[in-house]
Design goal:
- This protein has 194 residues and is of the alpha+beta class.
- It has one domain (40-192): Distorted Sandwich (Glucose Permease (Domain IIA)), CATH 2.70.70.10.
- The protein has 2 helices and 10 strands, in the order αββββββββββα.
- Strands 1, 2, 3, 4, 5, 6, 7, 8, 9 and 10 form a 10-stranded mixed β-sheet that branches.
- The N and C termini lie far apart (64 Å).
Length: 194
């Protein structure tokens, strides 16, 4: 009897894990999709990443000394944060950290309203999550300049309504990698120098 229960429990756990993985694969229903966890690169470059020059703090009015390094923070479901949270009032302007092209806009279960912008040259993708709203007219394929308003701070997805913030990530991209791929680079040391 105990052996049968153990087998049944193993099957249930395996089915649940397969279901969670299927829900989080890119493509399909954008209201549920979430980018898979990226392998984190722990040694950021000595200067701002990419050939497009330095990045800016992507929330209007936030200063470097207000930033907190949350890159390695643990998250539920065994995830690592691989980003920094920039605390700001709901509705504060979210700015493009670097120039690039909007590659993907969608609502995801964890990230809420999100934007992926591939920088000029294609080697870097900036990820913005938990947005309250997109900037008017923002669309996939739209070219943005550094400092251009792309959205507003919010708490969509799994963010607490009492703590609106921007979840900001940088991914180093290999040739041919899509918007949800790449290696996470810690944005904190790059932004804290500003």
């Amino acid at each position: 009897m105990v052996r049968k229960l153990a087998i049944l429990l193993s099957l249930l756990v395996g089915g649940y894990v397969a279901w969670v993985v299927a829900l989080n694969l890119p493509g399909g229903d954008d209201s549920r999709s979430v980018a898979p966890r990226q392998e984190a690169a722990r040694a950021p470059p000595s200067s701002s990443p990419g050939p497009s020059g330095p990045i800016i703090i992507p929330v209007s009015g936030v200063r470097a000394e207000q930033l907190v390094d949350t890159f390695d923070d643990a998250r539920d479901e065994g995830r690592v944060h691989d980003a920094i949270d920039i605390m700001a009032p709901r509705g504060a302007a979210v700015l493009a950290a670097a120039a690039g092209t909007v590659e993907k806009l969608f609502d995801s279960r964890l990230g809420g309203r999100t934007i992926y912008i591939r920088r000029v040259g294609g080697e870097w993708v900036d990820y913005y999550a938990h947005l309250d709203a997109y900037a008017p007219g923002l669309a996939e394929g739209h070219r943005v300049e550094q400092g251009e308003m792309i959205g507003t701070v919010g708490s969509t997805g799994d963010a607490s309504p009492e703590a609106p913030h921007l979840h900001y990530a940088i991914n180093a991209m290999a040739p041919g990698e899509r918007w949800w791929q790449g290696k996470a680079i810690n944005p904190y040391p790059l932004l804290a120098r500003r």
